User: Fold this.
Amino acid sequence: MDYPHIEEDQRDRIAQIISFARTYSPDRGHDEQVARNALQLFDQLSPLHGLPGNDRFLLHAACILHDIGWSRGDRAHNKSGARMVRRDRTLPLTKEERQQIALLVRYHRKELPSSSQRRFAALKAADKKRVAILSSILRIADGLDRSHQSRVEAITVTIRRDRVIIRCHANSEGYSEREYAMARADLFTMVFSRTVEIDWKIAG
Assistant:
């Protein structure tokens, strides 16, 4: 599957991460779609978040790995996946990258980053901000493929003073996608002080 632009020096690492995830993730197509959604959001939200390219890599890796915890059972798969990332030493990640990607995997559903959580609290202020921003994007990107049907073909983002409009160009209707993405936009609104609107447009 073609992703939005990947830096040349990250291609090999992404390929290794995809190979690792293939062993554990129940739906590779979903992981790829979430990654495509997230990278489009990251790129178009750049004026808002101001994060550098390596943070894009962290987001991409987390998208690929976000559902590996299903291999440990269906209960709290986000926490299982986070533990798997933290404990693995074959993934081509630095210690800091591994810690932050594990947190992104943990926060892709339900609970939000909080200083009451030991591993998040231990991060430096800049890393906390990074994890919160990237988690907020991953949560929406995951919601936009709720049905695992890869309905979103392209995303266009409009940034306004009080809201962000996410226009999804899709191949079919996506009621559950819109509903779930809106439910998962809670962290985004907290981080950026902007509400999220999702405009669904069926191609053709």
Observations:
- The mean pLDDT is 93.
- Strands lie at 152-159, 163-170, 195-202.
- The first helix runs from residue 11 to 24.
- DSSP finds ten helices and three strands in the chain.
